[in-house]
Write a structure and sequence with these properties.
The strands form two sheets. Strands 2, 4, 5, 6, 8, 9 and 10 form a seven-stranded mixed sheet that branches. A three-stranded antiparallel sheet has the order 1-3-7, with no helix packed on it. It has a single domain, classed as Coagulation Factor XIII, Chain A, domain 1 (Distorted Sandwich), CATH 2.70.50. 32% of the residues are buried. The chain is an alpha+beta fold. 26% of the residues lie in helices and 29% in strands. Helix 1 runs antiparallel to helix 4. It has four helices and ten strands; from the N terminus they run H-E-E-E-E-E-E-E-E-E-E-H-H-H. The site of one 2-acetamido-2-deoxy-beta-D-glucopyranose has 3 residues, from loops. One 2-acetamido-2-deoxy-beta-D-glucopyranose (NAG) binds next to strand 7. This is Uu.00g061910.m01.CDS01. Keywords: Cell membrane, Glycoprotein, GPI-anchor, Lipoprotein, Membrane, Signal. It comes from Anthostomella pinea.
């Protein structure tokens, strides 16, 4: 009975550590990750102020973008803007990737046009998947040269990546600023809150199922 309880506790601990939709690992996000507001454009719950953010160096001849997703499948858009509040004018910095399987995924050599050397920008990673669109942002200084891939830049062995098309994601590019349209849809009115609550309960259910399975497995191991 004791080991059954231990198994259940372990399963619960495991379930609570895999709640997040996705986390940006590199370059570091502007503000700490918030699961509840990750669905809010353009950055997952806040409006950046580029002139006052602590920007990290990003090498235009190749630098890494690394994420950790808990979802079974994710389509990724990597985009950038020099607009100080990230309100629009987004350009794509890499092909749209479909990640299959949850876990770490890293593109080690994202390149940026040399015209941006010496400029500050918002790099934004948008995930399209079972929970709709999710957003994270980094503030970067573009510098010459090639970066050394950080240690977080790994692909989980069970994860696969390939190029794909995703009209929902490409709609977030350009001066049309579809992202700013949705973010200006008054955050106080919480049209997004319903979505993220639903997402939360889906993930809660997933966690419950996972716990249930692990309890059963734990019980079977005892017999
Ligand atoms: C929009 O981005 C382009 C480059 O991608 C830049 O040249 C232009 O100045 C930007 N426009 C605004 C209004 O920021
Ligand atoms: C970056 O490198 C280019 C040549 O590749 C050079 O022309 C430019 O001056 C360099 N810029 C800086 C800020 O070092
Ligand atoms: C991860 O997989 C993608 C797609 O196969 C590949 O382009 C990329 O280089 C891999 N990343 C690492 C760190 O090996
Ligand atoms: Cu999620």
């Amino acid at each position: 009975m004791l080991s059954l309880r231990l198994a259940a506790t372990a399963a619960l601990l495991l379930a609570t550590t895999v709640q997040a939709h996705f986390e940006l690992q590199y370059p570091g996000p502007i503000k700490p990750f918030d699961d509840d507001t990750e669905g809010s454009a353009p950055c997952g719950g806040y409006t950046p102020d580029l002139d006052n953010e602590n920007a990290v160096d990003f090498h235009v001849d190749g630098d890494a973008i690394s994420t950790y997703s808990t979802h079974p499948q994710t389509n990724w858009l990597y985009r950038m803007t020099t607009d100080p509040t990230a309100s629009g004018n987004w350009s794509q910095v890499y092909g749209i990737i479909q990640q299959s399987g949850p876990g770490n995924y890293c593109t080690p050599q994202v390149t940026i046009s040399h015209e941006y050397v010496g400029k500050k920008a918002i790099l934004s990673m948008v995930a399209s998947g079972i929970d709709g669109l999710l957003y994270q942002c980094a503030a970067v200084n573009f510098i010459n040269g090639t970066g050394n891939a950080p240690s977080v830049c790994t692909n989980q062995s069970s994860v696969k990546g390939s190029y794909t098309n995703d009209a929902t994601l490409t709609a977030l590019l350009g001066s049309s600023s579809a992202s700013s349209a949705s973010s200006s849809a008054s955050p106080s009115e919480t049209p997004g809150a319903g979505v993220s609550m639903r997402a939360d309960s889906v993930e809660g259910l997933r966690a419950l199922v996972a716990t249930g399975v692990m309890v059963v497995v734990g019980a079977m191991l005892m017999v």
